[in-house]
Amino acid sequence: MMCKSGLSHVITIDIHQKEIQGFFDCPVDNLQASPFLLQYIQECIPDYRNAVIVARNPGSAKKATSYAEKLRLGIAVIHGEQKEAESDMVDGRYSPPTLPRSRTMDVGVGVPVHPAKEKPPINVVGDIGGRIAIMVDDMVDDVKSFVAAAEVLKELGAYKIYVLATHGDAPRLIIDSPIDEVVVTNTIPHKLQKMAVYT
């Protein structure tokens, strides 16, 4: 539809899934922000050699590994997730609501009811004690998960915590968090003091 309207070329920056390029009928160039963010680490983070690159979840481990290899640093991966607060369940974010268990299923007749799968609590694989933690991701949109990860990293002894991402659209929750600095490119405008734009 966009190509029919005259679009002849698409340029993206750190596209979330490379396969998306195949859905366009015109050429797509995906530019990488990592050279700029790697340069930021080397030039602007004092003692970056004492850092560990942290993947906020197993899905971002490939990106974290790429950064760690280029900088010759160690890597840590965060597994699990923060438990939702009771207010999260009430406000409708996790629709449909959980239904009370039917008493007719207790007899053993009908479809068995299995307990809901629970994600394990946050766990960090890798040593970050006494080091700088640098979380890398493609975008900062779900700030609660970054803040929860930063709290765990701080508890485990990380003395400084940075978040580096291509796209940053994070609310004020970052200001009161243990995250020392968030570095993003200028793909999305923002006005938070804790977020530095590196261009």
Q: What is the N-to-C order of secondary-structure elements (H for helix, E for strand)?
A: EEHEHEHEEHEEE
CATH topology of the domain at 32-80 and 120-197: Rossmann fold
Q: Which architecture of the domain at 32-80 and 120-197 per CATH?
A: 3-Layer(aba) Sandwich
Shape verdict: globular
Task: Return the CATH class of the domain at 32-80 and 120-197.
Answer: Alpha Beta
Radius of gyration: 21 Å
What class would the helix/strand composition place it in?
alpha/beta
- The average pLDDT is 79
- Note the main sheet: 7 strands, mixed
In a nutshell, what does this entry contain?
By secondary structure, this protein is α/β, with parallel strands linked by helices.
Structural key phrases:
199 residues, alpha/beta, Rossmann fold, 7-stranded mixed beta sheet, two-stranded parallel sheet, 4 helices, PRTase_dom, nucleotide biosynthesis, PRTase-like, ribose phosphate diphosphokinase activity, magnesium ion binding
